[in-house]
Specification:
Blueprint (H helix, E strand, L loop, with lengths): L14 E4 L2 E4 L4 E4 L6 E5 L4 H18 L6 H17 L1 H11 L4 H20 L8 E3 L5 E9 L2 E5 L5 H14 L3 E5 L6 H12 L7 E3 L4 H9 L6 E5 L2 H14 L4 E4 L5 E4 L5 H13 L11 E5 L3 H13 L19 H16 L3 E4 L14 E4 L6 H4 L6 E7 L2 H8 L4 E2 L1 E5 L3 H10 L4 E4 L15 E2 L2 E2 L4 H6 L2 E9 L1
Parallel strand pairs: 7-8, 7-10, 8-9, 10-11, 12-13, 12-18, 13-16, 15-16, 18-19
Antiparallel strand pairs: 1-2, 3-4, 5-6, 6-22, 11-21, 14-15, 17-20
Helix pairs in contact: 2-4, 2-6, 3-4, 3-6, 4-5, 7-8, 9-10
The structure holds nicotinamide-adenine-dinucleotide.
């Protein structure tokens, strides 16, 4: 069966998911399809009262189901059933996501959705395996570190990988015994609503997941400032992350995990496998049209191999074919909005006006929708906005170096430290530079996440606080209590 579908014939769930059902909401924020620019829906905005209703529902559900206190294996079983249903429902989920987002339907079914189910199972396994500790004390005492869930966790996700980002938040929080009130991006809310519905169908007590739709100012602030939400887990821009910290500080104190922006360098040394490096570098900036937090957007190459590397990258960039997200054959994604496409174009135009050279791209593509051509910008320096700002589009900047120290200086970003790529056949150099690179994830002779969910992901500097994925993500959803018993 073909995965292609007609976007006009899709029924969209417009509302909020609270308890075990969709609560209708009046559409307020106009939504346009990135693949053809058509206005097709409007996203409701949950106000503080509705967010409070979701939080109170979550608190009652926690109490009635004793989700945090039941045998952990029971939580594991429900989450495994949920993952099974997600796989079985992949087509419906993929359609709801593809229509609104930049994710091609084929990538969703084979990639995002399959991986999300896998990650939910990965987190489920921690439910009955992560144990509290007995600690060494003197003979007359017994010391323990007990852990327990927070209660209601507030989660906020971005538009670039909606299902997957929801799985990163919901999986560990639920496995650890919490309830979650989640706000997806106002640009891509539909697939997250369906994920919640599937969870209830899988046997998750109703109310443990609520999905409230809305923007950052109203719904987001109501979540981060809610006194009964005990912890915040956020993925999005550094700007919004800072605003969330401010709102939390204004309304109280609570722990938060922030997965924020990046401007990740890819360093290619003369001794690297150039074809392999060219493939990885190009894929990292053209995949989802560069709209990924870990997009390798700064190419830093040793001067002596710059020419063949650039040649190979340009060939690959020019071969990219745009296609709507609802076509099963589509590989190259549109930009999420016209505004964002314009912003990308403005940054590239400003770089060119300041003396940079566009080796390819630097323009919108001549097709319906918000497509932007893969772009390689040379002749930029460390102060150029194209090198400093997270563009969140298919724009790769090019800089060259002559020795390791120069490469390290160029790689260092004043505020971001999310990921970095290193291409070299010299093992000593790979280890030496891995130690020096200031980033939360380093990929050597490859670029991009694998299905090794045990590797945590998170940023250095202003790319974030705390980790998603890995054991850390589970542990971040439990608080610890130190206990000392006098015997
Ligand atoms: P964004 O920050 O504009 O929005 C993210 C989410 O936060 C949305 O749901 C939005 O409504 C909400 N929001 C915005 N302002 C808020 C506020 N003041 N209070 C509460 N919520 C608020 O980001 P985006 O454009 O949706 O996504 C792109 C960004 O996400 C990029 O910067 C990208 O690097 C980052 N990202 C990071 C990771 C990671 O793992 N580090 C993963 C994916 C995306």
């Amino acid at each position: 069966m073909s995965l292609s579908f007609d976007p006009d014939s899709l029924a969209l769930p417009v509302g909020h998911f609270i308890g075990d059902r969709l609560v209708a909401g009046e559409g307020v924020i106009a939504m346009h399809r990135p693949s053809d620019g058509k206005a097709y829906a409007a996203c409701p905005i949950a106000d503080a009262d509705l967010v409070d209703r979701a939080v109170q529902t979550a608190k009652s559900a926690l109490k009635e189901s004793n989700w945090g206190g039941i045998r952990p294996r029971e939580r594991l079983k429900v989450l495994h059933r949920w993952a099974d249903l997600i796989e079985q429902d992949a087509m419906a989920l993929a359609r709801l996501e593809a229509v609104a987002s930049t994710r091609p339907v084929g990538h969703l079914v084979e990639g995002d959705i399959a991986i999300s189910a896998e990650q939910i199972r990965f987190f489920a396994e921690f439910a009955d395996k992560d144990s509290s500790d007995l600690v060494p004390t003197d003979d007359g005492s017994l010391g323990m570190i007990m852990t327990e869930p927070y209660g209601v966790v507030g989660a906020i996700t971005p538009w670039n990988f909606p299902i997957n980002m929801a799985a990163w938040k919901l999986g560990p929080a639920l496995a650890a015994g919490n309830a979650v009130v989640l706000k997806p991006s106002e640009m891509t809310p539909f697939s997250t609503l369906r994920l919640a519905e599937l969870a209830v169908r899988a046997g998750l007590p109703a109310g443990l997941i609520s999905v409230v739709l809305g923007d950052g100012m109203t719904t987001g602030n109501a979540i981060t400032g809610h006194p009964d939400i005990a912890k915040i887990s956020f993925t999005g821009s550094t700007r919004a992350g800072a605003a969330i910290m401010e709102n939390i500080a204004r309304t109280g104190v609570k722990p938060m995990t922030l997965e924020l922006g990046g401007k990740s360098p890819q360093l290619v040394f003369a001794d690297a496998d150039i074809d392999r490096a060219a493939a990885a570098v190009t894929a990292s900036i053209t995949s989802n049209a560069g709209q990924a937090c870990v997009a390798g957007s700064r190419l830093i190459v040793e001067k002596s191999v710059a020419a063949p590397l650039i040649d190979a990258i340009l060939k690959k960039m020019k071969r990219v074919v745009p296609g709507p997200t609802w076509d099963a054959a589509s590989q190259y994604s549109p930009i999420i909005s016209e505004r964002q496409r314009q912003r990308i174009d403005d940054i590239v135009a400003a770089a060119v006006a300041a003396g940079a050279e566009c080796l390819t791209g630097g323009r919108s593509m001549d097709v319906p929708g918000y497509f932007y051509a893969p772009t390689l910008v040379a002749g930029v320096d460390q102060r150029s906005p194209a090198v400093i700002e997270e563009i969140f589009g298919p724009v790769l900047t090019l800089q060259t170096f002559e020795d390791e120290d120069e490469a390290m200086n160029l790689a260092d970003h004043p505020s971001y430290g999310l990921a970095a790529g290193l291409f070299t056949s010299d093992l000593s150099r790979a280890i030496r530079l891995t130690r020096r690179l200031q980033a939360g994830t380093i990929w050597v002779n490859r670029y991009g996440r694998s299905r090794d969910h045990i590797l945590p992901t998170g940023g250095y500097k202003q790319s974030g606080i705390g980790k998603d994925l890995g054991r850390e993500a589970f542990q971040a959803n439990r608080k610890s209590k130190s206990v000392l018993i006098s015997l």
